[in-house]
Design goal:
Helix content: 10-25%
Radius of gyration: 27 Å
Oligomer: single chain
Mean pLDDT: 87
Low-confidence stretches: none
Number of strands: 8
Order of helices and strands: EEHEEEEEEHHH
Shape: elongated
Strand order of the largest sheet: 2-3-4-5-7-6
Largest sheet: 6 strands, mixed
Strand content: 35-45%
Structural class: alpha+beta
Amino acid sequence: MEALKQYKIGFTGLANGRHHFPFDIGPAFFDCFDHSEIERASVHLDLNLDKESNMLVFDFVFRGWIELVCGRCLGCYHEPVDHQQRIYVKFGDDFKEQSEDVLVIPHTESHFDTAQYVFEFLHLMLPLRRVHPDDEAGASGCDQVMLKRVKEHTPGHRRADSAGPNRESPFEALKSLRFDKDN
């Protein structure tokens, strides 16, 4: 958890105005969280804080890449990251989440922990369909050897070395059965 200490932003000693906090997010960050889908990444975060007398505005600007596993060929690839997110932090009596981007913290707080928000924002950026991007010529970036192996094990695919009907199908034996009423 020592790696997350830097993400706790102390705002009480800061003057009103804009403040900048740069972070480089890598594997050590994700090791601090259970059940992270991200293991390897190189993301630069520019965290900008606009401090006002009654509110804090945090702007998160992410740039870099996250390593993902391709759902087609199971090879690793780098998914580019270029995203911005903003949250507003107001002061009140208790901790409360007014909406997905507006939070209320007690007046007595002196720090705001951004680590969980960084973790969640990066996970929300992950695409649902994780596939190697195509190259400049439009060809798939997937491992072609693995794609060939997957195609060989696709139902209905006939291998070049198999003679006759597809013996792997359990329905081949049923095709020879007759259910005529005359017999």
